[in-house]
Amino acid sequence: MLRGMYGAGAGMIAQQRRQEMLSNNVANANTPGYKADQGSMRTFPQQLIQAVGTDHPETHGSRDVGTLATGVYMQERTPNFTQGDMRETGNSTDAALLQGGVPEDPETGNPAMLAFEAVNGDGDVRYTRNGNFAIDGEGFLTTPDGYYVRGEDGEAINVATENIDISEDGVITDADEDVLGQLNVVVIPDAENLVKEGSGLLNYEGEEEIVTAIGNDETDYQIQQGALEGSNVDANRTMSEMMATMRSYEANQQVLQAYDQSMERAANDIGRLQ
């Protein structure tokens, strides 16, 4: 009976974590460049149940009854890096990255992901698909979190004014058509090793080398000025999944209550001296 309580409790915890993940997806449905999280449910290792105290000669006093599952858990949260839709903003400092052909991992078949590159004052490098850029007090192009947007040369891009033009390959020019820099778009070969840090920033924890997409024959992309890549969250589907998750949570809760009532009766009624 206790095993059943543990299984139902594990199911409730797993569904609660899944609900938190889905709620976060819905909350970021309008966040530029946001990539929806997906949860992977796994079962705990099964146990082999045996009946002891028997005379079965082949099992030395015990016999196999069967296996017993010990509950489920949400193993991991992995972002879905598919392309989001394009949304016109009209802001000259906004840049949407439209990903085309990219190389695939020869072992997994997963496609690489393209992203903008940014760095903070301490030299920490992050990646983002949120092209909602701004200009700080010193004229540098920055992300919403204040990270400096990196150019092809690896340096922060100083534009000084919002009166700029961004070409399809990321070259930034001013009103006099002087080149101010070029947005560096990088190729992340194993995107599953990207970790979210908020405001659309991603930290890479993989070991494969990240290279630039500029002049890379294996990649195809286009940058659209005055637009942003929207979130790839499917709000309708996510709401449906939230309702299903809640029903599953409630079902496990009812099972747990049934076990609790059975144990209460075993302790108070069956064990009572007549």
TrEMBL record:
Q: Where is the Flagellar basal-body/hook protein C-terminal domain positioned along the sequence?
A: 224-268
Q: Where is the Flagellar hook protein FlgE/F/G-like D1 domain?
A: 116-173
Q: Which GO terms describe its biological process?
A: bacterial-type flagellum-dependent swarming motility
**Which keywords are on file for this protein?**
Bacterial flagellum, Cell projection, Cilium, Flagellum
Q: Which Pfam family is one of this chain's hits?
A: Flg_bb_rod
Can you tell which superkingdom this protein's organism belongs to? Bacteria
Q: List the record's Gene Ontology CC terms alphabetically.
A: bacterial-type flagellum basal body
The protein's location, in the record's own words, is: Bacterial flagellum basal body
Q: Ranges for the Flagellar basal body rod protein N-terminal domain?
A: 5-35
Q: Chief location of this protein?
A: other
**Matching InterPro entries, A to Z?**
Flag_bb_rod_N, Flagellar_basal_body_rod_CS, Flagellar_FlgE/F/G, Flg_bb/hook_C_dom, FlgE/F/G-like, LlgE_F_G-like_D1
Family stated for the protein in its record: Belongs to the flagella basal body rod proteins family.
Protein name, as recorded: Flagellar basal-body rod protein FlgG
- Species annotation: Salisediminibacterium halotolerans
Instruction: Write the lineage as a comma-separated list.
Output: Bacteria, Bacillati, Bacillota, Bacilli, Bacillales
